[in-house]
Amino acid sequence: MEAKHQHQHQFQHQYQHQHQFQHPQHPPQQQQQQQRPSKSTRSPPGGQGSRRRRWGRRRWWWRSCWLWWWWWWWWRRAVDFKLEGHRCYKEKKFREAIGKYHRALLQLKGIHGSEVELLNQAASRLTEEQRRAVESTEIECYDSLTACLLQSELVNYERVKEYCLKVLGHQQDHFKAMYRAGIAFYHLGDYECALRYLRDAKSREPTDTNVLRYIQLTEMKMSKSGQPVREPGKEALG
Prior knowledge:
Blueprint lengths: L1 H18 L8 H8 L11 H44 L3 H16 L5 H9 L4 H23 L6 H14 L4 H13 L3 H14 L4 H16 L7 H4 L3
């Protein structure tokens, strides 16, 4: 038995001697140092999330500034086209003025191909003051277009009516739009609508001679065609 135990001890010692370089035993402190990450590699709590939030805020700020600049450039170009139209109108170049006003309106509508998405994003961030500026420019362009069309040799009264109604859709008490809409309806043969718009214009400017003259012409046309001419007070009741 003693010889057997001695043989097993010798075999175990020989096995450990053969494999001691294949499985080195590290000291306990060295093992703990390898398992524990160094302080320099560990990120502070919430550090990565904070950086992402800061980057998101900066990105939103730059995008907002860029969209605002883009809106300003786009609106400024519309104003420039409108001013060029005014200059052409004063020089009695009505056809050129009409083209300039149309360019201004196209710029306001933002229908230049790939610009649509950008302008829609910019429009969603417009302030109330910016919205009023866009609306005012649009009203002025449509109003100036009707003035140019009425100066043409062959007046397109259907287009005059359309533009006047657009102006009145934004500003119901616009005197020139009411008066010109009355003229357009008169020449289109819709005397009842013409009389209504002309009377609305008269309520704004009671002494305007052009309005009074067209009211008389409209009432005469209605009398000749057998249409009843209603009194201004009874018109709303009827």
